[in-house]
């Protein structure tokens, strides 16, 4: 069963915005070494809105190749066009991804029935496990619990990345869905609370820079060792907060470049991390032991 700390991995880019596949391979190798439990590629943190279809395919297939079965690959395959999301899902299946992550359609603001039909069509298009992704702060549309419960009965829909940080909401959801339905926190600052309430883990931005600590925190929480989990979470609080000083993934890509793991490449309309924030994020990196 998929569980633990799953990294929402960045898509490394060169200074000119070109994709940097050698760095992607080195990041995947590092995450395997550090105990990351799964790797989500071409999601929000992977700048999915700015990669074209061919690049999206290449990142998925290359990640599957680089992981070589050592860690599950969860392919970002969502979209606001059902047809395009189906095409990406079918490609992910063909490429050998273990799961797909399918975001709530953004901008066109579908009704709940539209969301149900959208995800049902995706799940029926390819025999690959689908994890729903609800992030209303970005999509405007909000996948309500009633709709998630309906979708949990659809073949191939196996879980959700829930990014509202609403404790009451996620508690009620976990009470209503089947016990084997996977629930992941989509926000690092809520991850510990979600897991202590019974969620399976987190799809994490913080894990990009502190993979071992995120793995150990979630493992401790799942094992019932709250003291250890809280101690680690307290060490990571600066990252949970300051990796969002600007729009994700602007700060985390700067942090990884500061750590020497990627080049400082990012695509418009995202811009380089503003200099006034550098010292604040560098302090959080030092507190977590990511840099000296």
Automatic annotation (TrEMBL):
<comment type="pathway">
    <text>Amino-acid biosynthesis; L-lysine biosynthesis via DAP pathway; (S)-tetrahydrodipicolinate from L-aspartate: step 3/4.</text>
</comment>
<dbReference type="GO" id="GO:0009089">
    <property type="term" value="P:lysine biosynthetic process via diaminopimelate"/>
</dbReference>
<feature type="binding site">
    <location>
        <position position="203"/>
    </location>
    <ligand>
        <name>pyruvate</name>
    </ligand>
</feature>
<dbReference type="InterPro" id="IPR002220">
    <property type="entry name" value="DapA-like"/>
</dbReference>
<feature type="binding site">
    <location>
        <position position="45"/>
    </location>
    <ligand>
        <name>pyruvate</name>
    </ligand>
</feature>
<dbReference type="InterPro" id="IPR013785">
    <property type="entry name" value="Aldolase_TIM"/>
</dbReference>
<feature type="site" description="Part of a proton relay during catalysis">
    <location>
        <position position="107"/>
    </location>
</feature>
<dbReference type="Pfam" id="PF00701">
    <property type="entry name" value="DHDPS"/>
</dbReference>
<comment type="similarity">
    <text>Belongs to the DapA family.</text>
</comment>
<feature type="active site" description="Proton donor/acceptor">
    <location>
        <position position="133"/>
    </location>
</feature>
<keyword id="KW-0963">Cytoplasm</keyword>
<dbReference type="InterPro" id="IPR020625">
    <property type="entry name" value="Schiff_base-form_aldolases_AS"/>
</dbReference>
<keyword id="KW-0457">Lysine biosynthesis</keyword>
<dbReference type="GO" id="GO:0019877">
    <property type="term" value="P:diaminopimelate biosynthetic process"/>
</dbReference>
<keyword id="KW-0028">Amino-acid biosynthesis</keyword>
<dbReference type="InterPro" id="IPR020624">
    <property type="entry name" value="Schiff_base-form_aldolases_CS"/>
</dbReference>
<comment type="function">
    <text>Catalyzes the condensation of (S)-aspartate-beta-semialdehyde [(S)-ASA] and pyruvate to 4-hydroxy-tetrahydrodipicolinate (HTPA).</text>
</comment>
<keyword id="KW-0456">Lyase</keyword>
<feature type="active site" description="Schiff-base intermediate with substrate">
    <location>
        <position position="161"/>
    </location>
</feature>
<dbReference type="InterPro" id="IPR005263">
    <property type="entry name" value="DapA"/>
</dbReference>
<dbReference type="GO" id="GO:0008840">
    <property type="term" value="F:4-hydroxy-tetrahydrodipicolinate synthase activity"/>
</dbReference>
<feature type="site" description="Part of a proton relay during catalysis">
    <location>
        <position position="44"/>
    </location>
</feature>
<keyword id="KW-0704">Schiff base</keyword>
<protein>
    <recommendedName>
        <fullName>4-hydroxy-tetrahydrodipicolinate synthase</fullName>
        <ecNumber>4.3.3.7</ecNumber>
    </recommendedName>
</protein>
<keyword id="KW-0220">Diaminopimelate biosynthesis</keyword>
<comment type="subunit">
    <text>Homotetramer; dimer of dimers.</text>
</comment>
<dbReference type="GO" id="GO:0005829">
    <property type="term" value="C:cytosol"/>
</dbReference>
């Amino acid at each position: 069963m998929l569980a633990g700390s799953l990294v929402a991995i960045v898509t490394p880019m060169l200074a000119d915005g070109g994709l940097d596949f050698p760095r992607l391979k080195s990041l995947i190798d590092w995450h395997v070494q550090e105990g990351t439990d799964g790797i989500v590629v071409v999601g929000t943190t992977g700048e999915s809105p700015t990669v074209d279809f061919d690049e999206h395919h290449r990142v998925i297939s290359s990640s599957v190749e680089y992981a070589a079965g050592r860690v599950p690959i969860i392919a970002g395959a969502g979209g606001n066009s059902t047809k395009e999301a189906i095409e990406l899902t079918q490609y992910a299946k063909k490429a050998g991804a273990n799961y797909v992550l399918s975001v709530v359609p953004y901008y066109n603001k579908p009704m709940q029935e539209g969301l149900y039909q959208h995800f049902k069509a995706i799940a029926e298009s390819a025999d690959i496990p689908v994890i729903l992704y609800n992030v209303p702060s970005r999509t405007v549309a909000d996948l309500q619990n009633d709709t998630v419960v309906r979708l949990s009965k659809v073949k191939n829909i196996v879980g959700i990345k829930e990014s509202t940080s609403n404790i009451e909401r996620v508690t009620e959801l976990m009470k209503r869905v089947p016990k084997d339905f996977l629930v992941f926190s989509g926000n690092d600052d809520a991850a510990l609370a979600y897991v202590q309430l019974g969620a399976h883990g987190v799809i994490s931005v913080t894990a990009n820079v502190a993979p071992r600590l995120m793995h150990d925190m979630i493992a401790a929480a799942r094992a019932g060792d709250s003291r250890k989990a809280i101690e680690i979470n307290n060490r990571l609080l600066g990252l949970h907060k300051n990796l969002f000083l600007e729009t994700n993934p602007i700060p985390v890509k700067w942090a990884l470049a500061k750590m020497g793991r990627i080049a400082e490449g990012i695509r418009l309309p995202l811009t380089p991390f503003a200099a006034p924030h550098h010292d604040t994020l560098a302090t959080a990196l030092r507190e977590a032991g990511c840099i000296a």
